[in-house]
Every structure is written in structure tokens, then in C-alpha cells.
Design goal:
By secondary structure, this protein is mainly α. The chain has one domain. Helices cover about 65% and strands about 5% of the residues. The longest helix is centred in the middle third of the chain and has 29 residues.
């Protein structure tokens, strides 16, 4: 199964934290001036470390175990099916005067199997992806309030992403933990199984945009063109 959890924001947060710590350590003490009212925060990292997100992650492994098991079994079957083809392709292309047309056909067959297999695995794991989106939306719904509350308590008037900051002094400006504390209070847990018919926000917004472009449906008695 392809990584369902996007770890890039977390990695970025860790790298940023390391970078900030290194820069701060290299600065003289006299330069470590705190600018009141300003802070930084990595919201993706805050969400991923929230209690609701982490507990839901653990619960999902049990609730959706049949899907995980089915996907793992099918992945192994696909790997067993594709490996001999890949091995043969590697051998054939190293042969003297290898037939390029045959190699192209072999490569195309392997690629088609990989793509169809990936689509099949995504279909099997679709309930898992829906669960992740559902939990994410529940947390996102309170994230803005958590940010505002943490800023108010700490007297912060300007909150920046680490990407927008060249350097900071130690963790003096880091508001992650304060936002996390507020988020854990506002969203102590999350439901991992979406209700029947639920769709992720992106799909709902796309449907709404499409409906807006089409305009309201004609009502009974409304004259139509050509009459």
C-alpha cells in the first residue's frame, strides 16, 4: 500500500526545527532578542501530533483490518506476477542486438500491470482513505479556533509559517505546543467511520462549483427557448 499518511509536513517540521536550533546556537547571546507578539507554527505537525489524529490512526488499523489485509495480499500477488516479467525484461535488454520493439512491448505490459494494480489497491483501500479525510476534517474544523485561542493566551498578533522565516532564536517563537494543547481540548477524539453518503470536502466543493456553473434547474411552468 502506498503511504496513506503524508509524512512530508512532519519531515519538513523536523528539518526546520533542526535548522532553527543550529542557527540559534550560532548566534551570540546579545543578538537573541525576543520580538513580542510574533510566533511561528507548523500546523501540519500540530494536527499529526494531536490526540484525536493519533488515536484515530491506531483505531483505523483495527477497524479497517480486512481492507489492509486484502490490500497486502493483493499487493503480494501483483508483485509475484510482475517480478518474472521485470526479470525477463532485464535479461532481454542486455542481450546482444536486443529487439527494441519487443523490449518496448514488454515495458508497456509491465507498466500497465503496475498501473492497474495501483488502481486496484486504491479501490480496496478507499474506505481507509475516506476515514482519513473524515478525521482530518473534524480536526480542521477546530484548528482555526485553537490557533486563535493559543495566540490570544500568549499575546501573539502575528503567526508565521517556518517557511516564511529566515531564522529564529531557539524555540522562543514556537507556538506549536500551545496550539496543540488547545486542539486536544477542543477535539479530544474523532469518529473514524464516515456516515453513509459522506464525501470529502474537495468533492463537495467541486460538486457545488459545478452546480453553480450550471445554474438553477428550470422549475415547472418556466418557458424554455424555442417555444
Amino acid at each position: 500500500m502506498k503511504n496513506l499518511f503524508n509524512t512530508a509536513p512532519l519531515k519538513a517540521a523536523i528539518v526546520a526545527g533542526m535548522m532553527f536550533g543550529t542557527v540559534a546556537a550560532s548566534q551570540p547571546a546579545a543578538a537573541q532578542t525576543i520580538v513580542k507578539g510574533m510566533a511561528i507554527a507548523t500546523l501540519d505537525a500540530v494536527i499529526a501530533n494531536s490526540n484525536a489524529y493519533k488515536v484515530a490512526d491506531q483505531q483505523r488499523k483495527t477497524t479497517y483490518k480486512p481492507q489492509f489485509d486484502q490490500a497486502e495480499q493483493r499487493r503480494n500477488q501483483l508483485a509475484a506476477q510482475i517480478k518474472p516479467l521485470v526479470d525477463k525484461f532485464n535479461v532481454d535488454r542486455q542481450a546482444p542486438n536486443a529487439n527494441q520493439q519487443t523490449l518496448s512491448q514488454q515495458a508497456q505490459q509491465i507498466q500497465q500491470l503496475q498501473q492497474s494494480g495501483q488502481q486496484e489497491l486504491q479501490l480496496i483501500l478507499q474506505p481507509v482513505a475516506m476515514s482519513q479525510s473524515y478525521v482530518q476534517e473534524q480536526i480542521d474544523a477546530k484548528l482555526n479556533d485553537a490557533v486563535k485561542t493559543a495566540m490570544k493566551k500568549k499575546g501573539i498578533t502575528l503567526l508565521l509559517s517556518p517557511d516564511a522565516v529566515l531564522a529564529v532564536n531557539d524555540n522562543a517563537y514556537n507556538l506549536n505546543q500551545d496550539i496543540l494543547n488547545e486542539l486536544n481540548t477542543m477535539v479530544p477524539s474523532a469518529q473514524i467511520v464516515p456516515p453513509q453518503g459522506w464525501e470529502p470536502r474537495q468533492i463537495r466543493e467541486a460538486r457545488a462549483a459545478q452546480a453553480a456553473q450550471q445554474g438553477p434547474a428550470p422549475t415547472a411552468g418556466t418557458p424554455t427557448q424555442g417555444r
